[in-house]
Amino acid sequence: MGELTADAVVDRMVPQAPRVSPDGRWVVYASSPVGRAGEYPESGLWIAPADGREPPRQLAAAAADDREPRWSADAAWVYFLSDRAERGTPQLHRVRREGGEPEQLTDWRPGIHEYLLLPDSEAVVLVAPEENAAPADPRVRVVRAAADAGAAHPEPVPTGAGHPAFSPWDSVAPAHRLWRLDLRTHAVGPLGDFGRRHVVEAAARPDGRGLAVLTWSVADREPGRFDPGLHLVDPATGARQDLGVPAHEPEQLTWWRDEAGWHLAYRGVTPPGLIGGNAIFEARGHRNLTGGMSVCPIEPAESGDGSLLALFAEGLDTTIRRFDPATGAFTELARATGSLLGLSGGGGRIAVVASTATEPDAVHCGPPGGPLTRLGAPQLRGIPWGVQERLSYPAEDGLDLDGLLILPPGRTRADGPFPLVTLVHGGPYDRWEDRFQLGWFRCGQWLAAAGLAVFLPNMRGGLGHGHAFAASVAGDVGGAEFTDLLTGIDLLVEAGVADGERLGIGGGSHGGFVAAWAVTQTDRFKAALVNAGVIDWPLLAATGEHGRYDRALGGRENSPITYADRIATPVLILHGEDDTNVPLSQAELLHTALGDRPHEFVVYPREGHSLRERAHQIDFLHRTRDWFAQLLA
Predict the structure, then answer these.
(1) Residue 221 — very low, low, confident or very high, per pLDDT cuts 50/70/90?
(2) Residue that finishes a domain, picked among 88, 105, 122
(3) How, if at all, do strands 188-190 and 176-182 pair?
(4) Angle between helices 480-494 and 510-521 (to 10 degrees)
(5) Which of 242, 248, 246 is nearest to 221 (CA)?
(6) Mean of the pLDDT values across residues 311-329?
(7) Strand-pair partners of 75
(8) Residues 343, 393 share a domain
(9) Alpha carbons 291 and 288: distance in angstroms, whole number
């Protein structure tokens, strides 16, 4: 039997963005390690027969960040973004399906952000800044008097005939534009006119006769002001049609077709408020296609045959569903125990990245209704894993809850009670699914290997149980969701699984808030971990990237800083120095408030909201496990 090491955790390869070829015969995907070893990330492209008859082989290997593979219409070429010419500056490349030397198609000075292939055309649409664009210096913010800075959708400010409205803020970062690359001449020219708006994403209609384009009013989220716009563009003339104000946080533009013609869908935040989870909308009229469902859409995807597919979070599991235009509902095609991500379709097959309780992320392919075949051998064989149990229990008020329990390897409930670490997911609109729990932060198996039992609760406010479940925490974080957490712990103590005198709690982002909140409300926990956690909601609303969203979640009365004088539990504070989502000032507040009380404060330089550097992830793993193992011994 092998031993689980931190190196094995952060060096594990994770596949992303699988794409099925239009003829359904091949799958190409990118793969990269969990941790970044050098200054720049490295990822490679892999290709495999869709039926799994041969193992994947690498395409055009290089010490570079190769990502976002796409197929040409005839499945002869794989297009991709790569910084192999200049590290840190991605350009568009293509390579033959059989392999060989890639062809570089762009030499755009600031690099290419995104691209899409126009069907049946010798052209590619690029999303990139202007070639001579540079960040504003000095940085200037201009407030337009016509806009209400506090409104979710302020009144637009006219920008002249034919131009969409823009936000009351001028952008700091250079805006991305839409460009058309002629593959025959390699000439690049502008496509469409969006004024000063920032192009975020685009999707080509499968018949090649239209582009859906998502724009923001600014290129940066300062803080949380990026009023979105949705447009249709003629790829031949650049003529633009606006589709009105979309739902909050629109993304993942997806085309589908019925008897009436082509339609555009996207994922956005469920109305009417900012808190309530995601829904899938039809762009014209912004009709909610998932209203009333007790499950939550993760991502829509084109099927390759014109129908609309989507992944849905359903409790601890994930389903694949198809939209039925006749009934206006999504019908389940297949259910997977665990997680599915990165859905794509083509030639009667789909591809996803799947993970179960006993198997790490791997690309799977097959018909939409299953079965799906894993492409390639499983990773990390020969290491003993802790048994992962599915939990289901009622909240104090009767609401149905679920979660996971991981026991130390080779142990059963009969060997308890164990020291118990409760790990709280972020969001709060997120979840613990019944997948392989091994990563630099989602580290349930890593802690279990040290003899700790790990509880992963899905409290109210999270993903997988519909709109009302998610919306219930609006303005009340730390309320019923914290009671949900304690209820689960109490049940494990009563069952003899957890030792009530050896309880720890930890979390990142919103989970970091819950951990900090927990130790202001009770002294039951003997150790706490606060990673990138929210300590002061009003301060976060003023300084973070999601100002309106954060204001809707909490205020001073449910901020840990308000009750920090009560904390008696030793706290490990971990934070990225360059975090713009939850700025470092949040961690500094907690550190200062704790004063001489037992705690450690660790700042990771160059890191944002998530740790990327391999050495930092290894430090996080060792520091976290040592903290809980020592204090819960």
Answers:
(1) low
(2) 105
(3) antiparallel
(4) 70
(5) 248
(6) 97
(7) none
(8) no
(9) 6
Segment 91-145, tens digit of pLDDT:
999 999 999 999 999 999 999 999 999 987 889 999 999 988 776 666 555 554 4
Are 461 and 361 within one domain?
Answer: no
- Same structural domain for residues 556 and 444? yes
Q: What are the phi and psi torsion angles at 33 (to 5°)? A: -70, 160
Number of domains forming the structure of the chain: 3
Same domain assignment for residues 372 and 394: no
Cα 548 from Cα 228, distance rounded (Å)? 14
- pLDDT digits 0-9 by tens, 556-578: 999 999 999 999 999 999 999 99
Determine the Cα–Cα distance for residues 423 and 454; give it in Å rounded to an integer. 7
**Pairwise CA distance, residues 441 & 624, whole Å:** 9
Q: DSSP letters of 376-401? A: SPPSSTT-----EEEEEEE-TTS-EE
Cα(167)–Cα(144) distance, integer angstroms: 8
* Residue that is written with structure tokens 């520091």 in the block: 623
Q: In this structure, what token pair is assigned to residue 447?
A: 């802690």
Specify if 229 maps to a domain.
no
Reduce the secondary structure of 204-236 to three states and give it as a string. ECCCCCCEEEEEECCCCCCCCCCCEEEEEECCC
In a domain, 474, yes or no: yes
CB count in 10 Å sphere of residue 61: 12
Q: Flag whether pLDDT at 222 surpasses 90.
A: no
Q: Which helix (H) or strand (E) holds 335?
A: strand 329-336
Q: Which of 86, 105, 124 is the last residue of a domain?
A: 105
Which stretch of DSSP H or E encloses residue 538? helix 537-543
- SS3 at position 290: coil
Query: Which range of residues forms the domain containing residue 61?
Result: 13-105
Q: Is 223 exposed, middle or buried (0-12, 13-18, 19+ CB in 10 A)?
A: buried
Q: Does the residue 199 lie in any domain?
A: no
CATH number, domain containing residue 344 = 2.120.10.30
Q: Residues 551, 616: one domain?
A: yes
Instruction: For residue range 413-448, list pLDDT tens digits in order.
Output: 999 999 999 999 999 999 999 999 999 999 999 999
Question: Could you write out the DSSP letters of every residue in 482-512?
Answer: HHHHHHHHHHHHHTTSEEEEEEEEEEETHHH
Confidence at residue 560, expressed as pLDDT on a 0 to 100 scale: 98
371 preceded by cis ω (within 30°)? yes
At 61, phi and psi to the nearest 5?
-60, 140
355 and 411 part of one domain: no
Do 353 and 463 belong to one domain?
A: no
Q: Which two tokens stand for residue 58?
A: 């690498």
Residues 402 and 549 in one domain: yes
| In-domain check, residue 176 | no
Between CA 625 and CA 407 the distance in angstroms is 15
Ramachandran class of 268: left when φ > 0, alpha when ψ lies in -120 to 50, beta otherwise? beta
Coil, strand or helix at 604: strand
